[in-house]
């Protein structure tokens, strides 16, 4: 398909779409509007109510020379109520047309909400297909903590990252972690560029106009904040881990030499994670190393974490890999549950150290209590500023207590129940919630039931306690 023509419809279809954006349907309304937000504790307008997405089909065209993104999103969802209208999250970009189940739908934009009114009401339980044609120059967002996310452009490429809500800058959808779906992402770029997304590369083909089309497939459920699209002149290497997990690394050429050592250990880390946490949850693993300065942080985008330049520290690679189990496969129900991502991945770093001649998890724990930065550089990071299960606001969901004190919660469980029960708990949690969502309450109940121990003191002091634990 010619991506320069991708978002354009035939003239009669355009006329019909323009008509229905202002017209009214005549039949009686059987459904009601879906909610325009899921009332997340920190991002109440994120996501939408009334439906669950089953699959995203994204067909994207991007040329770094002009920075314009052409997109067609096909969203297959199931109505959870009778729907007279529903919302999609979309920031910026020009919507050129929307249809639902092949019929033109009325739509309007208010802020980051795209409200869609199908020609006929949707019944509860109905699977429906929404197609949105759109284009424009995507814009980055600035989060409450000052970091940038969304569609980030560089000198010769771009990357889409979405934690917590930035994915809405490059495709419409239900952008809350509680709604996970399978993805197929096709990206067409000028010849000489690589285009990378999540999952498995199904095909790479030359198309008209001196362009290359990359088709990526992610069959496992994925929260939209973990979706990525990366365009640039990357150096690609592939391989397999000893157990057969495919590895796909895309590295900015200027970062290749400095990345080689850390990425070389990725297959070993995958195998270690399998031993500690259970089967790897996805069909592929890998990494995308961006040109230095593109981002100010690494992100655990599903199957291929992105790094802001060469990952000099192997602990960072291990941390993002651990998220594939904790955060990506087992995803948070709300953004208040972030410690289930970051506390677990931080504890995975401690376990890697423990198993590879570094400080034990106990030494990391003691170092944080004692302020010993020689053992753990985060010892003076303010890890005790607030309880990890109750960050004060959206600007705090990536702060030190969520990471370090979250890891300390896990170590306190280990101290209480012993190694056998603790590691069985980690593996059971990853297995029993595989490809799902979980809350803090789900974890505390699971831990007590799985271990047969009363862990109330751990929760009261370490997980929810507002003072500095002793």
TrEMBL record:
Transmembrane segments: none
Keywords: Hydrolase, Metal-binding, Metalloprotease, Protease, Zinc
Aminopeptidase N-like N-terminal domain mapped to chain residues: 54-226
EC number: 3.4.11.2
Residue ranges annotated for the Peptidase M1 membrane alanine aminopeptidase domain, each copy included: 314-462
SUPFAM superfamilies per record: Leukotriene A4 hydrolase N-terminal domain, Metalloproteases ('zincins'), catalytic domain
Plastid listed as a keyword: no
Catalyses which reaction(s): Release of an N-terminal amino acid, Xaa-|-Yaa- from a peptide, amide or arylamide. Xaa is preferably Ala, but may be most amino acids including Pro (slow action). When a terminal hydrophobic residue is followed by a prolyl residue, the two may be released as an intact Xaa-Pro dipeptide
Cofactor(s) required, per the database record: Zn(2+)
CDD domains: M1_APN_like (cd09603)
Family: Belongs to the peptidase M1 family.
PANTHER family (UniProt xref): AMINOPEPTIDASE N, PROTEASE M1 ZINC METALLOPROTEASE
Listed name of the protein: Aminopeptidase N
Source lineage: Bacteria, Bacillati, Actinomycetota, Actinomycetes, Kitasatosporales
């Amino acid at each position: 398909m010619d991506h320069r023509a991708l978002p354009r419809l035939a003239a009669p279809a355009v006329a019909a779409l323009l008509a229905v954006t202002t017209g009214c349907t005549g039949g009686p309304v059987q459904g009601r509007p879906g909610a325009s937000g899921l009332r997340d504790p920190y991002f109440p307008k994120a996501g939408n109510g009334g439906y669950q997405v089953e699959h995203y089909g994204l067909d994207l065209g991007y040329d770094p020379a002009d920075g314009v993104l052409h997109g067609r999103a096909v969203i297959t969802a199931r109505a959870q109520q009778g729907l007279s209208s529903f919302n999609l999250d979309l920031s910026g970009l020009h919507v050129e047309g929307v249809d639902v189940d092949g019929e033109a739908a009325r739509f309007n934009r208010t802020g980051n909400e795209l409200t869609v009114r199908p020609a006929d009401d949707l019944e509860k339980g109905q699977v429906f297909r929404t197609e949105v044609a759109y284009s424009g120059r995507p814009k980055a967002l600035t989060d409450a903590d000052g970091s940038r996310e969304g569609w980030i452009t560089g000198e010769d490429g771009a990357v889409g990252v979405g934690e917590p809500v930035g994915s809405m800058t490059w495709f419409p959808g239900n952008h809350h972690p509680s709604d996970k779906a399978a993805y197929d992402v096709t990206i067409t770029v000028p010849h000489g560029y690589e285009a990378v997304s999540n999952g498995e590369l199904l095909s790479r083909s030359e198309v008209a106009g001196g362009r290359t089309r990359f088709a990526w497939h992610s069959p496992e459920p994925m929260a939209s904040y973990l979706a990525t699209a990366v365009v640039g002149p990357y150096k690609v290497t592939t391989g397999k881990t000893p157990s057969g997990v495919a590895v796909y690394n895309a590295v900015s050429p200027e970062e290749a030499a400095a990345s080689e050592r850390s990425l070389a250990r990725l297959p070993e880390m995958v195998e270690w994670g399998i031993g500690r946490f259970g089967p790897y949850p996805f069909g592929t693993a890998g990494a995308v190393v961006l040109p230095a300065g593109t981002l100010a942080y690494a992100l655990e985008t599903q199957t291929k974490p992105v790094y802001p330049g060469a990952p000099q520290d192997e602990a960072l690679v291990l941390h993002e890999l651990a998220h594939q189990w904790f955060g990506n496969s087992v995803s948070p129900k709300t953004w208040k549950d972030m410690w289930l991502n970051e506390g677990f991945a931080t504890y995975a770093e401690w376990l890697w150290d423990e198993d590879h001649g570094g400080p034990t998890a106990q030494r990391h724990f003691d170092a944080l209590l004692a302020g010993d930065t020689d053992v753990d550089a985060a010892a003076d990071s303010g890890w005790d500023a607030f309880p990890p299960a109750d960050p004060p606001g959206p600007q705090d969901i990536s702060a030190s207590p969520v990471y370090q004190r979250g890891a300390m919660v896990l170590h306190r469980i280990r101290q209480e129940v012993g190694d056998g029960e603790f590691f069985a708990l980690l593996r059971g949690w990853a297995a029993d919630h595989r490809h799902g969502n979980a809350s803090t309450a789900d974890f505390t109940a699971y831990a007590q039931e799985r271990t047969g121990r009363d862990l109330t003191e751990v929760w009261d002091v370490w997980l929810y306690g507002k003072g500095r634990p002793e």
